Amino acid sequence: MSTSSAIEPGTKLAERFRLEDRVHESNGATLWKAIDEVLARPVAVHTFDPDFPRLNEVVSAARTASRLTDPRLTQVFDATEDDGCSYVVSEWVTGDNLADLVAAGPMEPERAAALVAEVAEALAHAHEAGVPHLCLTPEHLVWTAGGTVKLLGLGVDAVLADAVHDNMRVEDAARGDAEGLGRLLYAGLTGHWPGEEAPGGLPVAPMDNGHYCTPRQVTAGVPGYLDTIVCRALLPESKRGQTPLASPAEVAEALSSVPRPAPMPMPAPPPAPPVTASRSEGLDTAASPQRHTPPPPPPYRPVQQPHPSGGGGALGKVAVGLVVLLVMAAVGLGAWTLGRSIGNAGDAPEAGGSSSPTPTTGTTATREVKPGSAQGFDPLGDGDERSELASLALDGKPSTDWHSESYPSADFGRLKKGVGLLIDLKESVAVKEVTADFGPVSGGTVELRVGDSKDLDDLGAVAKASGLGGKETLTAKSPKKGRYILLWFTEGPSYQGKYRAQVNEVKIRAVK
């Protein structure tokens, strides 16, 4: 068996799990979408480099998590550690995470509270078995395609993020997850993240006198009792005299009266929009020309029971008779109206008269350009910047990405003035705009450069964006013709405590 560092798509583990797509990799751990060929279903697989420093801990945490039976927790199917290859196989989850659900604004307060209440109950069960999460972010809370709540990454993500330690006290872990649940509820109620680095492209919560504003200060209409629950879990300084919520079980108890999500019978919906991917377990994704607004979870209301009726048969016959009379009257009125219209046809204006459509104002017509290939661009360094990942920014899957090396500072460790992703369009076109998904980064600056040469000096800057995170559209004031486009990062965005450039997906439009 080959080592994790040499594993490529198509590799089969345990003669069963065939790796298909590399979703994410970081610090010696790689997340794959794979196929369980025995059960013919997709699964998520973590593989680890042979020198991964906490291999024993991550496999042990996965095995412990596999014994939990709460359906709201991601299932772990297999966890193996051996000299050839170590891996963890878990459930592949499809749906919209919390960041997606608040992309267009805060959720309905009761809905947000219901989702977090489900997660709090599941996490309380996990704590009873000695398994904390400690990495709760909007990407870990998913409203699945099947209309249920799922918590991703239990056990495994805490080890990968080095968030759990041997000397950590049980009460400290419980308090940490209670605060995490408070952050999730805060995000659902306000659309902001109460933390220094906002995951999932969410804006950072506003501050007041050195403290985060309460949900009611950020968003109108938040019920007072939910504002109090958030403060007790996360912002005790804002509710002096209130007992803090110090464990997931206490958060679950505080939210126990909130109506729970239940899928309601609905008419046949239009085709479902694409969904985004979690960094913990993989999510099915599809290409999208713009950021979609996912449908909210179904409304929370009790199911109406049929009302008993007496003498319904006679009343029904009378109702049917009335309907027949109304239909006959409508048909007669329609026939009269049609005849009158035909009789007045001679008075209608001729073609080309004043009733012709008013011409619209002219706009620049554009077309989407399919890129041919891409490469990591590092002309001021060794010439290459993770080019082996460059195709992942063009594969139509927002869950995969090209990213640069990680640097200790936003100025790339003072080693160079920038790095970038260079895309070859295979033809010279007049580039108008580029929409790029920069993923769950924060900050940074990128320039859109266009030209007919791969030389940095020949690629002219036509647009610029700062404060990156999620999708950004860079639009040229005047279309610039060129075969190559370069997303040139002059300041590295922040990602998981370091700095790196990242591009999950790119859409290019040129003048027709």
Automatic annotation (TrEMBL):
Protein name, entry field: Serine/threonine protein kinase
Taxonomy, superkingdom: Bacteria
Biased composition (Pro residues): 260-274, 292-301
Region (Disordered): 241-312, 347-385
Organism ancestry: Bacteria, Bacillati, Actinomycetota, Actinomycetes, Streptosporangiales
Stretch forming the signal peptide: none
Biased composition (Low complexity): 348-366
Domain Protein kinase, residue spans: 17-310
Keyword Transferase: yes
UniProt KW Iron-sulfur keyword: no
Matching SUPFAM superfamilies: Galactose-binding domain-like, Protein kinase-like (PK-like)
GO molecular function annotation: ATP binding; protein serine/threonine kinase activity
Keywords: Kinase, Receptor, Serine/threonine-protein kinase, Transferase
